[in-house]
Structures are given as structure tokens and as C-alpha cells.
Amino acid sequence: xxxxxxxxxxxxMIDDTLSPILxxxxxxxxxxxxxxxxxxxxxxxxxxxxxxxxLHDIEKACERIELAMKNNxxxxxxxxxxCDGIPGAVVLHDFFTTIxxxxxxxxxxxxxxxxFGLSTKAIDQxxxxxxxxxxTIDCGTTNVEEIKYAKExxxxxxxxxxxxPGEVLPEAVAVVNPKLGDYPFSELxxxxxxxxxxxxxxxxxxxxxxxGQEKWWLDMVGVATIADMVPLKGENRVLAHFGLQVLRKSxxxxxxxxxxxxxxxxxxxxxxxxxxxxxxxxxxASRMDNPEDAFFxxxxxxxxxxxxxxxxxxxxxxxxxxxxxxxxxxxxxRLKALEEIPPVLVMGSPEWRPSLxxxxxxxxxxxxxxxxxxxxxxxxGVYKGSCRSGGGASVVKLMNSVSEVFLEHxxxxxxxxxxxxxxxxxxxxxxxVSAMVSLGEEALVKEDIVIDAEINLEDINQFLxxxxxxxxxxxxxxxxxxxxxKNVIPDSVELFGKTKEHTKLIFKTENGKLEAxxxxxxxxxxxxxxxxxxxxxxxxxxxxxxFMGRHQIRVMIVDVISx
Length: 563
What we know:
Blueprint: E1 4-5, H1 20-28, H2 34-41, H3 58-70, E2 74-79, H4 85-98, E3 104-107, H5 120-128, E4 131-137, H6 144-152, E5 156-160, E6 174-176, H7 190-204, H8 218-227, H9 234-247, H10 253-261, H11 271-288, H12 292-299, H13 303-336, E7 345-348, H14 354-368, E8 372-377, E9 383-388, H15 395-401, E10 406-412, E11 415-420, H16 428-439, E12 449-450, E13 453-454, H17 462-469, E14 483-488, E15 492-496, E16 502-509, E17 512-518, E18 536-545, E19 552-561
Parallel strand pairs: 1-12, 2-3, 2-4, 4-5, 5-6, 7-8, 13-14, 17-19
Antiparallel strand pairs: 8-9, 9-11, 10-11, 14-18, 15-16, 16-17, 18-19
Helix pairs in contact: 4-7, 4-8, 4-12, 7-8, 8-9, 10-13, 11-12, 11-13, 12-13, 13-14
């Protein structure tokens, strides 16, 4: 399990015009040079984005799209079904709609029946639709055989993607990918990559689009950049920063109604609202039904139709929660029937959707502090699953050590995915348990949790919030600041929520009462159980909340430890 790494003394100020806490937080992020500090604290859309023309094959892509529009060829926008592909599809849809090019369609593969990326089935459908050019979003780089099949069927393909290229690139008209060629920043998400393509097209011909109008599409780029968890550095920080600004003003009726239904004030929308509200509802469409439901919710201009989409997505999201809860209940029941809990949890059911099992695997791995591999069956009868590490062993090391049982497997140390050969579905759990035992210490991946700074309760005020805002948005590559608050005494310890599943500590400070909250953790779940009038130490984030119109500064507890 990870340990906490407490902050060391800061030897020197990076910039003496900045506050000590801001210097500290910049230092823990490795941002120490004057130009780096200036760029990080002052994102600039005009000067900090690279020219789209630097992207690999971008000129070829633009020329082929221009030719298609000149000849009125039918264009298909083929996107992935997740929080990157769908917003990216909306960007390109909005571009064609804005310039009044009507001979195009959107195609989003069904997660359960078609899976990720291009397929020959999809290409056959597109050929029947009279499509001459396919533009992929967030997929296609590794679809070598499928793009060859498209070419044989006289369909040209332009790939826009950000996934790692293989040794062989597909025979596409163009492969626009920041990980290819000499593009200065390789970590763009799929939606950002297609946005750069749109920028390049507008640089060649404005099509009557007003200067800067493309910035309104940054709301979708912001959603994808944050939800797809690409590093929020360089260009991504700029796109996320301005994406959030546009989101707070977005005129999309579906987005506005979704936020109202979730009781989120659009004016104060944050990256966490994307992660916990917008993202899950976009993903719910493909996990539970048709991914196009999310696409139309975001792209629909009619208030009434957009509202219907929002209601449908809300229903799907509730169904997702219910199914995951039932799945988790079943898993708990099975575990209780065991005489001994194995070091690796491997369970599943042919009735379960692979799109949902990762959520259950995460809950189990966290609760039992060990790797959990949970599987289901997709629409083609293939056994597929997801795994989570539970904070100890690397799921990648475990899968690599028994790779012969898998059709496919991959991921990173804490999370991954896999598909299992039919003959191994009821025995591969034993293989993973054996691997865990034989690997021993080699299976473990210990990563210390770095605490950014030590603060006092009296430091938690509007000034601290203003300083934290200068570093936002937070996410991958720019973690939310983590503080240690030592030797504090709770005035009260309360449980709240419908089933009393959340914990709230109340502290008296010079600035008045301060709430410290932890969702889905009870007092006994922390390293030290918080007790009224007993000193303890908090590991926590500090944030502002606008829930239900109530503006509040609060502490979000990560852990409570002994003084």
C-alpha cells in the first residue's frame, strides 16, 4: 500500500512576487523556471497553442476534405463511443453544420456489439450509405486491416487519433496523430486532435466562419481533455482552461439542461463536474444503450429534443448505478461464502456487460485491498473484463505472467482490461492467484502519495482558494493539491446522507466553523478513527463548493491519521 510522503522545507522561493503557498505548489509540480511559471499561471490561447499545420499528414487531410466538399461526396464522421470520441464528433459535426455542408453523417460503433475502432461491418454499412470518405476520431491508428478493406471498397479514410501507433501505419489518405512526426506536443486527446484539424481547415479557407468562432467548440475539447485524463500540461492545460471558460457560457441546450438537472450552477462549473456529472452521463449511453444518445444530447439545438435526450441519459445513468450495485451485491455474497479470501479476486458472469464490470472491480479492489478481475460477455460472446489493483500489486505484471490465458490484455499498474480464451474462463483465476504468490514482492508497485504542503485550519480561507484557482484545472499531470493539517481537534463527528454513508467533521477556527467531509467513508475506515475532542491529523484537499446555491469553502478528507 502507498505511504504518505510529507513535504520537505522549501529552500528558496521560485518567484518572490508570488505567495509562499503558490511557490510551494509550483515547486512540487516541478515548475521552477520563470517562463514555465508565467506560461502555467497565464494560459494564452493565441500564443501557447502550436500551429495545427505541424501535425503529421495534416495537409493531406485538409486537401482530401476540401476535395470531398467540392465534389459533394458523402462524408462519415466515425468516432469512438467514449468521453473523448463523442465530444470530438460534436466538434466536426458543428464545423460541417456551421459551413452549411450537409452531405455528411455520424457513425458511432456500439460498444457491446461492435467494440472499439473501425470494423468491416461498419465499413459495409457506410458503403451502403454511399460514403466516399471516412474521418475517424479517437481511433483508427491501429486499424490496418479495416482501412485496407475500406480502400478495397473505394472508401478513403482520414485517421485523426492520439493512440500509440504500431510498427505499421494503415494505408489511409492521412494519419493525423500528435504522436507521429515532429509535432511539439504528443499528449493531445482525440477531440483536441480533430479540433486542430478544423483549425487547419479554417486557416486555409474561413468558409464564412467568423474569426474566433471556433472557440465556441472548445467546450467539447475541454470535456474530452479532462474526461480522457490526458496530462493537463502544455497545450492541454490551455485547452482545458479555455474549455472550462466556454463551458460556463455554453449555449448547448442539452448541456444546460443536464447541469440544471444535476443542480450544478453552470457559471461555476469545474473539472470535477466534468468528471462526476458530465462524463458519467456521456459514458452511460454506450455502457447501457446507444452511444448516439449522448452525441445528440450534446449536438441538438432544439430545447425540447435536447431535454428528451437528457432525461434518457439520466435514466440510463440510474440504471447503470443499479446494475453495478446488484453486481457488487452478488460479488459480496460470493465472497462471504468463501472460507478464505484469495490474494486476487477473480469473478464474473456471462450475464454481465463488460462495460460495467470495471466499476465493480474498482469497488471490490478498494474494499479488499487486493487486485480484482471481473468479467462479463460482450454482444459477440467474447469473455471480456476489467481489473483494478487495489493499491498493491500491478495488474499488468500479473497479466503478463500468465499471458497465455488471454486473447488480449493491457493497461497500466492500477487498472487494465482483458479478454479471455474460452477454455480458460473458469480457470484463469487460479493462474492469477499462482502468479501473485510466485511473484511475491515483484508483483507490488509502491508509489508514495506526495503531500504538497502543511497548512493550519486558519490558512483555509478565501486567499488560499484564490491561490489554488491559479493552478486549476486539476487532473492528470496536475494533481489537486494535497495538504496535511496536523494536530486538529474535531468539535463534532457526524454521519450524513440517506443511508448515513458519509462522514463530516466540524472544526472551530478563527474564521468560524469549518466542515471537513469524506464521501462514502465512515469514521472507522480511516487510519485513525476521528473522535470528538481527540487530536488527529488530516490528509485533505481544500475546495470551494457551490452545491444547491450555497457558496462554501470546505475540506475534503482523504485520510485521518494519528498525530
